[in-house]
Amino acid sequence: MARRRSAPLTGVIVTYPDGGPAGLRSRHLLMLPSTVSPRDVGELLRSRVPDARLETQGIARLGRHCRVYGPFELSMEDAVDAGVPMPWTLVYALDAPVERDLPPHSGEDDRDGFAHAFPQGLPWREEGRALQLLVGLARRLQGAVRVHGTGVVIQPDPMRGVDLLLHSPTWLEPHVVQGIVARVVPGAELAVDGQEWHGPDAHAYAGAYTAHATADDPLTPAELQALHAMADQVDLAALRAADTIDAFAVVAEFPGPAWIPGGVLPDHRDGAIEVLVHVSDPGEPSVAGQDWGAHPFVTYEVRWACAQPEERERRLPSSSYLASRERVQPLVAAVARALVEAAGGVVTDEEGFLVDRYHL
């Protein structure tokens, strides 16, 4: 069986599927610039699949029936046999069952180009999840994904991801987060207001809401009274406890039609930056290697609430949206940078891939 040595940084021997480069034609391929090292790919993959050791083992399991393997360094002749278009010569192959849903609706569009690449039926389940992962890797590493069958090349916009997430063991009080955001975007406001609750209405005490469920064996007046007495004790205990906040948001709207540091631009709107703060449960893959990752931790989601959300989901968004994104992206990064300096932790992009805090 034909074999080919991977990038010299690892020295891993990766076997061609079906005996040679032509076997790559029947696989989805992640195509990357030749300057991308196996370590770069392996570290990003571990953000989503903590047990993956692609750079040292040459293969990583993504699901029960799904795996990715490589890298394959292709000569010009190998690239032709594999159906890999120019100028790509470094590829990773995906083994996944073909699982397709209904075809996309006429005129349907999506930011990753799946509707364009799979007109006969959109991939879903394991194939869909694995392809989304490959497209995410291609976006971060400025690569592309070649779809087997149609040969369509999905080349995602590397600048599309705007939102950033910070996972941290440190809880910052709402007024502290507000101050941090306000230094980047003046006018940031807390969004913690709740609604005053005066208790259940009279129908609840009369048993009207449970009557349909207890029609065959209705509660007696004494049983109903005892049930409400127990509920009252729970309510009283909650009222005696100190008020706590385990989630809040800070919203910084861009003033005027379109805000930039030092002024506004007419006839545009940039929306707002939202920082959503909440406690997350253990199990997030990107913090699997952290000592605090096995316990509940705090997540700070720095998100752009754009004024044109429909454009954000298009494969080819409008020029006005792209201009707005270019203005907002450095501000989102600045907020995330300030938060990680204050709280510490791990930063990921909106798809869950690790981001170096010093490159924000």
Question: Describe it for me?
Answer:
The strands form 4 sheets. This protein has a 7-stranded antiparallel sheet with strand order 10-11-14-15-9-16-17. Strands 4-5-6-3-7-8 form a 6-stranded antiparallel sheet. The protein has helices spanning 38-48, 54-57, 76-82, 114-117, 125-141, 174-184, 202-206, 221-240, 309-312, 319-343; strands at residues 3-5, 13-15, 28-32, 59-63, 66-73, 90-95, 144-146, 153-154, 164-168, 189-191, 247-253, 259-260, 263-264, 272-280, 297-305, 346-349, 354-355. The protein is of the alpha+beta class and 360 residues long. It is globular and about 85 Å long.
What is the gist of this entry?
About 30% of the residues lie in helices and about 20% in strands. It has about 350 residues and is α+β, with helices and mostly antiparallel strands.
Which descriptor suits the 3D outline? Answer: globular
Biggest sheet record: 7 strands, antiparallel
> Rg to the nearest angstrom?
26 Å
- State the total count of DSSP E strands: 17
Strand order of the largest sheet: 10-11-14-15-9-16-17
Topology pattern, helix = H, strand = E: EEEHHEEHEHHEEEHEHHEEEEEHHEE
For the termini, the CA-CA separation is: 45 Å
Strand content: 15-25%
Summed over residues and divided by their number, the pLDDT gives a mean of 88
Structural class: alpha+beta
* Helicity range: 25-40%
Query: Which stretches are low in confidence, meaning pLDDT under 50 for 5 or more residues running?
Result: 1-9
Count of alpha and pi helical runs: 10
